[in-house]
Design goal:
The protein has helices at residues 12-27, 51-64, 67-70, 81-93, 109-117, 166-170, 178-190, 215-223, 243-251, 268-274, 280-293, 312-325, 352-375, and strands at residues 3-8, 31-32, 41-46, 75-80, 99-101, 122-124, 148-152, 154-155, 174-175, 195-199, 230-234, 258-260, 298-305, 329-334, 381-389, 395-399, 404-408, 417-425, 430-434. With 443 residues, it is an alpha/beta fold. The protein folds into three domains: 3-124, Rossmann fold, CATH 3.40.50; 133-375, Alpha-Beta Horseshoe (pyruvate-formate lyase- activating enzyme), CATH 3.80.30; 381-434, OB fold (Dihydrolipoamide Acetyltransferase, E2P), CATH 2.40.50. The strands form five sheets. It has a six-stranded parallel β-sheet with strand order 2-1-3-4-5-6, sandwiched between helices. A five-stranded mixed beta barrel has the order 15-16-17-19-18. Strands 7-10-11 form a three-stranded parallel β-sheet, with helices on both faces. A hairpin with a 4-residue loop joins strand 16 and strand 17 (404-408). The radius of gyration is 22 Å and the shape is globular.
Length: 443
């Protein structure tokens, strides 16, 4: 049987796209390869949000080129956001590539693969949205995790953040019909999935282009599906996080008390330059509202350090937000100019060494905050969905607040929701033991 290997860079949307591509290849008679050297088809699903993933893609392609010596008929393909933005440029840099395709025509993979296997270059980068892109949703997915699954509910983004390439690589917002989403969730539940993770470039904008459904209504509908145990969603824009959505999160027992809400910067001046559409005060009001309805909610965010024009005083405004909100987790990066974005040619204010120091200081501060948040779990009993068993027999799962938990246990706990007493807090995870018939409140 022929084998495939997919290397994925980037966000949950890219991961889900790769899972769909795995499903397409499975229907064509392929099975996953344990490593790329055994593959007949290699796909590199790319990200273009920052410069570093671009470099990693070219490095990976340099390695994958070697497969041609062992298997001259092997097909190497590049897809995803970088391919959408610079597919022909990639082909020039790596002419040994057989396929290049973008983000809206993944469902054309069977046709493209057939073309490449016939000895032709299969290149298809569609700038306009393919009206048949939802054909992709009809394919099965190949998931490593049996008990949690991503479900795409919206594609693209209508925001105009000046640093962001997503509207170019993913297009305008397109919401899936609620019936299609519910049908997919039902299928996943029947396949053993316990946790549904709704994803999109801006999930909280779901339904705006449909006119007849709101995101919070979708949450209620999924909550009513028997067999769904947990619901999460990523990522939402602060401007679209309404009180109705927050009320639904608090009201629905299956929606987890965890939210990723990107702030990007703390300075109003920089937020305006980024065209984020809110001030620091307005963002913090959303945080206050979340904690009013869900006092124990776990929060994470994205932060860009060194956006053009950012001064040390602006940076300190970001640090102020960090100290006030006390996020459970922060994804922080140094600003990376993206070709084709409004901010691409803006002059940098500080030198790279200074920005690296700012970033490092921020990360160190956040590590202490994250550890402090984790320490609060010691001695408490939490609900954990057991997702994986390690080679040493230990189990790994997550709390409703998305904390990683390592615990002792038995194989038959896989896929189960269990009560766990946290015995130790680490900087990035928790440790605990399962309990039976315990008469304690679960958080």
């Amino acid at each position: 049987m022929k084998k495939y290997y997919i290397r994925t860079f980037g966000c949950q949307m890219n991961i889900n796209d790769s899972q769909k591509m795995g499903g397409i290849l499975k229907t064509l008679g392929y099975e996953p390869a344990e490593n790329w050297e055994d593959a007949d088809v290699i796909l590199v699903n790319t990200c273009s949000v920052r410069e570093k993933p671009d470099q990693k893609v070219l490095s990976a392609l340099g390695d994958f080129k070697k497969i041609k010596k062992k298997n001259p008929d092997a097909v190497i393909g590049v897809c995803g956001c970088l391919a959408q933005r610079a597919g022909y440029e990639i082909l020039q840099k790596a002419p040994f590539i057989d396929m290049v395709f973008g983000t809206t025509n993944i469902h054309h993979l069977p046709k493209l693969l057939e073309e490449a296997q016939s000895g032709n270059k299969a290149v298809e980068i569609i700038e306009d949205i393919d009206e048949n892109e939802t054909e992709l949703d009809k394919y099965p997915v190949v998931r490593e995790n049996k008990y949690t699954a991503f479900v795409t509910i919206i594609r693209g983004c209508d925001k105009n953040c000046t640093y962001c390439i997503v509207p170019t690589t993913r297009g305008k917002e397109r919401s899936r019909r609620i019936g299609e989403i519910l049908q997919e969730v039902q299928y996943l539940v029947e396949d053993g999935v316990k946790e549904i993770h709704l994803i999109g470039q801006n999930v909280t904008a779901y339904g705006k282009d449909l006119g007849d459904v709101k995101f919070w209504e979708l949450l209620y509908a999924i909550n009513d599906i028997e067999g769904v145990e947990r619901i999460r969603f990523t990522t939402g824009h602060p401007r679209d996080l309404s009180e109705d959505v927050i009320k639904a999160m608090a009201d629905l027992p299956k929606v987890c008390e965890a939210l990723h809400l990107p702030i990007q910067a703390g300075s109003d001046r920089i937020l305006e330059a980024m065209d984020r559409g809110y001030t620091q005060k307005e963002y913090l009001q959303k945080i206050e509202l979340l904690r009013k309805y869900m006092p124990d909610i776990a929060l994470s965010t994205d932060i860009i350090v060194g956006f053009p024009g950012e001064t040390y005083e602006d940076y300190l405004e970001t640090i102020k937000v960090l100290k006030e909100v006390k996020y459970d987790q922060v994804f922080a990066f140094k600003y990376s100019p993206r070709p084709g974005t409004p901010a691409e040619n803006l002059p940098m204010t500080e030198d790279p060494k200074t920005l690296s120091k700012w970033l490092n200081d921020l990360i160190l501060m956040q590590k202490d905050i994250s550890f402090e948040k984790n320490l609060a779990y010691e001695g408490k009993v939490v609900e954990v969905l057991v997702e994986e068993q390690k080679e040493d027999g230990s189990l790994v799962g997550r709390t409703r607040t998305n904390k990683l938990v390592h615990l002792e246990g038995r194989n038959n706990l896989l896929g189960e929701l269990v009560n766990v007493k946290i015995t130790k807090a680490n900087r990035f995870s928790l440790e605990g033991k399962t309990l039976k018939d315990i008469n304690l409140t679960v958080i």
